[in-house]
Amino acid sequence: MTLSSWFVLMNLIGLALGLLGTFTNSWILFDSAAIAPFSPSSSSCASGGPGDATSTASPRIDCLNYDHAQVTIGSPTIEMRWTVALIQLLSTVAFLTPFAVVALISFQAIARRPFHTLTTRALYIGAALVAVTGLGADLATSVGQTLVLREVLSPGDVGYPEYFRIESTLWPVGAALLMAALAAIFRHGARLQSEKARLEDETDRLRRDTEGLV
Question: Quick one: which of 23, 27, 133, 208 could link to 90 by a disulfide (CB 3.0–4.6 Å)?
Answer without folding.
Answer: 133
